[in-house]
């Protein structure tokens, strides 16, 4: 199982849970889709996506997408201008 969440580096207490799932590719794709995101988290997801689209190169975007979907244990986290996207393998109970 994998856990995907966003944190805003300037707000120590704000961690936005985006989802949990067995398939990291589906989790990453669905959790960062503003149409599927919980309305309370939609603003933060859109803020991340805007930074993702505008503040890094196309090559970096491709590399990040691939890492989070296909090598989540290597990806771990990625920061863009004060926001960090995290993926973490969690134990099943």
List the helices and strands and how they pair.
Blueprint: E1 2-8, E2 15-21, H1 24-31, H2 42-54, H3 58-70, H4 72-75, E3 77-80, E4 83-89
Structural description of this entry:
This protein is an alpha+beta fold and 93 residues long. The chain has one domain (2-89). It is built from 4 helices and 4 strands. Strands 2-1-4-3 form a 4-stranded antiparallel sheet. A hairpin with a 6-residue loop joins strand 1 (2-8) and strand 2 (15-21). Helix 1 (24-31) crosses helix 3 (58-70). The longest helix has 13 residues, at 42-54.
Short recap of the structure:
The protein is built from 4 helices and 4 strands, in the order ββααααββ.
**Percent of residues in beta strands:** 25-35%
**C-alpha-based Rg, rounded:** 12 Å
Structural class by SSE content: alpha+beta
Average predicted confidence as pLDDT: 90
Q: Could you give a short account of the major beta sheet? A: 4 strands, antiparallel
- According to DSSP, the number of beta strands is 4
For the largest beta sheet, what order do the strands appear in spatially? Answer: 2-1-4-3
Looking at the structure, what is the overall shape? globular
Element pattern in H and E: EEHHHHEE
Report the uncertain regions. Answer: none
Helix content: 40-55%
Tally the helices: what do you get? 4
Tally of discrete structural domains = 1
What is the end-to-end distance? 10 Å
């Amino acid at each position: 199982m994998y856990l995907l969440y966003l944190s805003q580096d300037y707000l120590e207490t704000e961690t936005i849970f985006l989802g949990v799932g067995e398939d990291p590719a589906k989790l990453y794709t669905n959790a960062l889709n503003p149409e599927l995101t919980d309305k309370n988290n939609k603003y933060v997801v859109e803020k991340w996506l805007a930074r993702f689209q505008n503040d890094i190169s196309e090559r970096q975007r491709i590399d990040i997408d691939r890492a989070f979907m296909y090598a989540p244990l290597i990806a771990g986290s990625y920061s863009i201008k004060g926001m960090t996207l995290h993926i973490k393998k969690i134990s099943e109970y």
